[in-house]
Amino acid sequence: MAAAGEKDSRIVLLSADSGPNSGFGEFISRFPGRYYEFGIMEECVIGAACGFATTGLIPVFCAPAPFVTGHAYEAFRISIGYMQANVKLIGRNAGFSYSDLGPTHYALDDIGLVRLIPDVPILAPQDGNEMKNAFRAMMDYEGPVYMRVCNAGMSEICEDKPFVIGKGTVLFEGKDIAILSTGNTTAAAIHAAKKLREHGVKAMVVGMPTIWPLDIDLLKQAAKTERIITVEEHFTSGGFGSIVAEACAEHCPVPVTRIGVPNGYATSGAYEEMVAYYGLDSSGIAKTVQQTMKNKRATC
Amino acid sequence: METGIADICQLEHKAALCRQKILRMCRAHNAGHLGGAFSCADIVTALYFHTMRHDPINPAMPDRDRFLLSAGHKSLVQYAALCESGYFPEELLDTYGCLHCKMPGHPDKRKIPGIEANTGALGHGLAIACGMALGVRSMGYGSRIFVVMGDGELAEGMNWEAAAAAAHHKLDNICVVVDNNHLQISGAVEEVMSFQPVAEHFAGFGWVTREIDGHDMSRIVGALDALPFEKGKPSLIVAQTTKGKGYSKAENVGAYHFWLPAEGELDKAEEENREVLKRYES
Predict the structure, then answer these.
(1) Among 3.20.20.70, 3.30.470.20, 3.40.50.920, 3.40.50.150, what is the CATH number of A169-293?
(2) Is B253 left (phi over 0), alpha (psi -120 to 50) or beta?
(3) ipTM computed for the complex
């Protein structure tokens, strides 16, 4: 953020009592005149972000994902989305990152909500390298962007290379089945694929750090395996898996099995326990793959 | 154009011309949010033709004053003022309500020049104004941001977040005018959800306030010319108004919030407006 701020003086940082905890300390100390604190009022901050953008400035606002999306949805939909305001919104602690705090602090629906706001790219970087490069791409993009970040420490799995909005990558080769993942679940997907190799299942892992617009060409490539699994720390309905299923139905019909949190009010507890409970760890993903492999193969 | 007309009579004439245009749009669609558009017509006229620095030839000039109609359902009055100012040709008024028209029922930034934001989902305007005010100030522009709100709209919580933010950030380049016509869809504002006295509510958040007769052009101009009321603090004008002011049958009648003209009503309203215009054109 500080590097971006150094490069472009139009960038300003907005905070709803959220800035200092969002890792923007260097920006705040180097550019105090470009840091605006509003206190706990996310709706107003998003409206104000629109206002800033109308003057030619580029506001960045980062706060826990449920408060950037669900709580401030109308302002997001109209003042940012419809008006195509050049505002960068980052929903941190997405998914159930705040696993011990309970459902008020989960964002298991943010992808679902934002995907219904037309023309707002949704990014979910998969590791630290990708987050840094996705941030640069987000700042260079002309228009609103939503980036979703879960806080669990992400293992390094991606190359340090420029991020292209709308493009995914095959991270692990395979031909029996394709696991499509986004954000922080991708490392577990790769680990699962490695475990599955030992049991003779060659699973492809496709990293999709841009949830919308989806990389349709890469999806078609993955669909050649004739079955797809999706993984996300989000409801299985309405999120990444739903977007993939819709795209498959339209472009390359293959069965899609979605791994995520079933629609319902999620439980609470230690993060790793929640990940395992919802089958989002490598064991859970591998188990779902093996169960899916038993289903009749589809033709495409 | 730079800040414009000083003569009160000329401004009153402009207000009558704006009301004429509002009626023209209501005729085109055979419907319209007449009550609120008419109640703030004098205020909006003063803003567009006396106070604000804006240019229909260069609507995006960076140091312009900005107008946000937070009570976006009153859009007819903004369209009338923009048309009268020269932002678009009069013929467009006759397309109001048509498929794909450039003037939907609430202001749309994407459709015609001069609209700063999409308002109408009530309670949003002041937050956007805060961002604009901070942005223009950081760039060294002397731009002022004017927000017209409804009194019923004050129930929306986002207004108060923004009121606090405006005072906290010392946004003396913001002026809110509350069109205090005391009526909303479900009845008298004081009975539905009262935020009276309005001035005290804003003062509690750190604003400086003034109350005026919202149909006395000399009082409106006097208040606007005194802005900011205090350096370092945002300003509020509570304009006491009459819903539907300008059409006798609509005055202070809640049913004219959204008007579906009965047989002959449009003719009557237009006739009353013509009588007013004659006084200024003679």
Answers:
(1) 3.40.50.920
(2) beta
(3) 0.92
